[in-house]
Amino acid sequence: IEGSAAWELVISSPGQVRVVGMGSVIGLEMSALMELARYQGYDPAIMSRLLPSIERGILTAISDRDRDDDS
Question: Taking the model in full, what pTM does it have?
Answer without folding.
Answer: 0.85
